[in-house]
């Protein structure tokens, strides 16, 4: 998978719980320790020159949880996919993907797809797996208040969120609802 932000870190946990070999591709080397603690077998820094060359035709599935996909060299990422490998996007970036050409898919016959949000049976299956594997979300709690909401919005805007923010203390903030 690529990206090791909040969604990416949770994806590492889930992929490992499902029995996958997890390789993380990231432009944030400071996230390597956390990625490995969550179950990543390997951490690949995409900041390194020619990072993709040793991984050519390696991965059968790549999960994109990133927001900044518009900055990526998609040809390099697609080149790491094995024959008929698939890149699947679950992150919803604000920007469009970079230009794509048919030639990017030719060397390995790879494909790209996206994900729907999920349905009730899938949700129950995920909750069952979470219970069986004792998976828990990694969150930072912030009291819901004007100051708390400001902190959350600024943290997201300044890329300071380590995993996920969760607003708490609703009953304290709104006792007479």
| Spatial order of strands in the largest sheet | 3-4-5
Terminal CA distance reads 42 Å
Q: Report the order of strands and helices.
A: HEHEEHEEHEHEH
Poorly predicted runs of 5 or more residues: none
Output the radius of gyration. Answer: 18 Å
Helix percentage: 25-40%
User: Rough shape?
Assistant: globular
Structural class: alpha/beta
**Main sheet properties:** 3 strands, parallel
Number of strands: 7
Per DSSP, what share of the residues sits in E-state strands of 2 or more residues?
A: 15-25%
User: Average pLDDT value?
Assistant: 90
The tally of helices reads 6
Structural overview:
The longest helix is centred in the last third of the chain and has 14 residues. By secondary structure, the chain is an alpha/beta fold. It contains six helices and seven strands; from the N terminus they run H-E-H-E-E-H-E-E-H-E-H-E-H. The mean pLDDT is 90. Helix 3 links the parallel strand 3 and strand 4.
Short synopsis of the structure:
The chain is an alpha/beta fold and 177 residues long. It is built from 6 helices and 7 strands, in the order αβαββαββαβαβα. A 3-stranded parallel beta sheet has the order 3-4-5. The protein has a two-stranded parallel sheet with strand order 1-2. The protein has a two-stranded parallel sheet with strand order 6-7.
